[in-house]
Write a structure and sequence with these properties.
- This is Glycerophosphodiester phosphodiesterase family protein.
- Helix 9 crosses helix 10.
- With about 270 residues, the chain is an alpha/beta fold.
- The chain has one domain: Alpha-Beta Barrel (TIM Barrel).
Length: about 270
């Protein structure tokens, strides 16, 4: 099975992470899947924000779980990010693929909700979405319940074939993974980990998600997962050397900030 390219928070090396523009760009660049982090607002809405606070990625300050959707929606999530690719090579590659030149942001980049991101994914047949629930959080398991409710609303929580599922749910919390598996047995899940030890016990997960550093230090972790009937998802893969290693070992999914470059390194066949 070929490696799937997952756009980590969208095409986040080029455009502001967790913005609709970053995800649209990733799909144009040939990403097979998108990855997002979700948190609950004070009034119970699922928003795509990685950090506990909005300070790094917006014009505001404060804790996501302590702010209402309306307050979060008033902020700009794009002005902090340089709109140009990191290298001239990346810019030329985009032009070769017929992608528009980057420009200074034409307007404010608004808050992205999980609902809007699911609208985007379901409008692109074959695209997938990896949803990471963040823990520890003040609302505990409510975040998984809300995510599953939203996936049910889109008809994605009970895939006929888990291998072809449009949505996958991930977490560093084994309890969160188990909650999802218990409520939606056919929905693929990924237990994330920053060390091999954190991935020894994988209750209910259909895949493990070690950081790429773990795979470099312990390549056999991929074989062990395969022997257990589990796929491997790894993050964050931004170099040709790491892509080659993942391909050699049989990693199923690689999350990257540079989906265009990774797609190029893998070639048309992936």
């Amino acid at each position: 099975m070929s490696i799937g390219v997952v756009a980590h928070r969208g095409s986040s090396a080029e455009l502001p992470e967790h913005t609709l523009a970053a995800y649209e760009r990733a799909l144009l660049q040939g990403a097979d899947a998108l990855e997002c982090d979700v948190r609950l607002t004070r009034d119970g809405h699922l928003v795509c924000v990685h950090d506990r606070r909005v300070d790094r990625t917006s014009t505001g300050h404060g804790v996501v779980s302590g702010m209402t959707l309306q307050r979060l929606a008033e902020l700009d999530y794009g002005s902090w990010h340089d709109p140009f690719p990191e290298t001239a090579d990346a810019l030329v590659a985009e032009r070769d693929r017929g992608l528009p030149d980057p420009e200074e942001p034409a307007g404010v980049q608004r808050l992205l909700t999980l609902t809007l991101l699911l609208d985007l994914v379901t409008a692109h047949p074959g695209a997938r979405l990896f949803v990471e629930t963040k823990h520890p959080v003040r609302y505990g398991g409510l975040v998984e319940a809300k995510v599953l409710a939203e996936l049910h609303r889109f008809g994605l929580a009970r895939p006929a074939d888990p291998v072809e599922a449009t949505a996958l749910v991930m977490s560093f919390s084994a309890s969160a993974v188990w909650r999802v598996r218990r409520s939606a047995p056919k929905l693929p899940t990924v237990l994330l980990g920053r060390s091999a030890a954190a991935l020894v016990v994988v209750p209910g997960s259909t895949a493990i998600g070690p950081k790429i550093d773990v795979i470099r230090e312990d390549p056999d972790i991929v074989r062990r997962a395969t022997a257990q009937g589990r796929d491997t998802y790894t993050w964050t893969v931004d170099s040709a050397e790491d892509v080659a290693l993942c391909r050699e070992l049989g990693v199923r999914w690689v999350a990257t900030n540079h989906p265009l470059a990774v797609r190029g390194w893998l070639g048309p066949a992936g």
